Structure formats: structure tokens, C-alpha cells
Automatic annotation (TrEMBL):
Residues 1-234 form the CN hydrolase domain. Belongs to the carbon-nitrogen hydrolase superfamily. NIT1/NIT2 family. This is Carbon-nitrogen hydrolase. GO terms for molecular function: N-carbamoylputrescine amidase activity. It comes from the Bacteria.
């Protein structure tokens, strides 16, 4: 799910998630991943005092009403950015606290989580949660894959930067590369599916994606509102890891 969460409009944001859940079910989807802090809108300082427990109850209700597993991001106890995985009956199966806080705004109001994401069996896969900046650290995805994850479900909020650095194009940075370069690289090097759900432009980069364990895009959004749907198959995880044997050939005793 890619859309724009509006700060201060929780009821409207929840209604949008409800609408997307209905659309996802109609297209045969079994899991809906929503962007980071979508229910509150992404504004760390403003939403730190939001009612995370109440929003999680509402998100679980949406999952149950439509009979779809749902990943939603909320604030936990005013101290952590979290992501929750709800099953199709609305039960919260797992909750994960963001490990890597992005920028001064998040770091000023939140604490980083210090626990690994749980592995949860879902629709024939072993899935793990992450949040936004986490996936930009190779050890995060590698740890999940080493522990048995087949898929990573990642709510995200990547601010649009445009080309920055004041150099020729080949020596500038654009945050769009997180979606178009880093996410497929993480999928390829670990043999995992990645569902990566972002907010829309102009404030954010868009470019949400569903990436295969071969590092290819099964679906890639543009800049605006969009629902991505793709088929996943645990057998492809094993096949991808047989072709690209990074997990079995790595040398932790030498490189850590």
C-alpha cells in the first residue's frame, strides 16, 4: 500500500487503510503492508504522544473485518516507533520496535529498539518485520535471513531529497536509490522477499515495492497512490539461495 498519511487525521488515515484492505482482498492478497506511522501521519515530534494502543486496536479491527493479515506502524508508549503484524482474525502476532532511528527528528523523541524481530509463520512463509531505515543496514536483513526469514515486511517513510551533493549527476545522492538499489540488493544477497511500503510524493520518495529473492521487482510503484500485489512462493526462496549461495559461503569467523 502506497498513500499519503495525513498528520492529525487519524480517522481519515484509518479509513484509507480500511479501503486499501478491501481492495487488497478483492485482488486476492493475503497480507497488506502499510507505510511507517501511516495511521498518525509521519511527523515524529507531533505523533509521539499518539494513542498507539488505540490505533493498534483499530488496525486489528480492520484486519478482522476484511479477513486479511495486516502490518501497521504505531508509536509504542511514546518511546518507540513500532510495527505490528495482525492476523486475519485481528490478533496481534508480533510487534517490533525500530532499531535504527533516522535523523535528528526521530532521535530527539524516540529510543531505538534493542530486540531482533520475531519470525512468524504466515501464508506459507516465515516472515519478519522491519521499519524503514533498518533495511538500509545489511546486517539487519542478513540476521533475519540467517535465522530463517523468507520475507521481510517493511513499513517505511523515506523523505524525498532530490539530487543532493552539489556535484555532477554521477556524484550526487538521491534517496530514491534506497528503493531502486538497496532494497533489491538486500533481497538478492539474502534470498528473501521484501515488501516495502512508503508514503507518496512530494514529501516522500514513493517507489514502494515487492521484491523477489532474486533481487527483481515483482511490483514497483511510481510516485502516487498505489496498491501493489504479487504472488510469493517459499519454494522460490530455496531456489534463489541455491543459485546465489551467499548465506552458506559467508565467512563470519573472518569478517564477522
Amino acid at each position: 500500500m502506497q498513500a499519503a498519511g495525513v498528520v492529525g487525521a487519524e480517522d481519515e488515515n484509518l479509513r484509507r487503510i480500511d479501503d486499501f484492505a478491501a481492495r487488497a482482498v478483492a485482488q486476492g492478497a493475503q497480507i497488506l503492508v502499510t507505510p511507517e506511522l501511516f495511521a498518525t501521519g509521519y511527523a515524529p515530534a507531533r505523533v509521539a504522544v499518539s494513542d498507539g494502543a488505540g490505533l493498534r486496536t483499530a488496525l486489528g479491527g480492520i484486519a478482522k473485518r476484511h479477513g486479511i493479515a495486516l502490518v501497521g506502524s504505531t508509536v509504542e508508549d511514546g518511546r518507540h516507533i513500532s510495527a505490528s503484524l495482525f492476523d486475519r482474525q485481528g490478533a496481534e502476532l508480533a510487534r517490533y520496535r525500530k532499531s535504527h532511528l533516522f535523523g535528528a527528528e526521530e532521535q530527539a523523541v524516540f529510543l531505538p529498539g534493542d530486540e531482533l524481530p520475531e519470525l512468524v509463520p504466515l501464508v506459507g512463509l516465515s516472515v519478519a518485520l522491519g521499519i524503514c531505515y533498518d533495511i538500509e543496514f545489511p546486517e539487519f536483513a542478513r540476521s533475519a535471513a540467517q535465522r530463517g526469514a523468507d520475507a521481510l515486511l517493511i513499513p517505511t517513510a523515506v523523505p524525498a531529497t532530490g539530487d543532493v551533493g552539489g556535484r555532477p549527476p554521477e556524484h550526487t545522492y538521491n534517496a530514491e536509490r534506497i528503493s531502486t538499489l538497496l532494497v533489491p540488493a538486500r533481497a538478492l544477497e539474502n534470498g528473501v522477499y521484501i515488501a516495502y511500503a512508503n508514503h507518496t510524493t512530494p514529501g516522500f520518495t514513493g517507489l514502494s515495492s515487492i521484491t523477489s529473492p532474486y533481487g527483481t521487482f515483482l511490483a514497483l510503484a511510481g510516485s502516487g497512490e498505489e496498491l501493489l500485489v504479487a504472488d510469493v512462493d517459499q519454494r522460490e526462496v530455496g531456489r534463489a539461495r541455491g543459485l546465489n549461495t551467499y548465506l552458506t559461503c559467508r565467512r563470519p569467523e573472518l569478517f564477522g
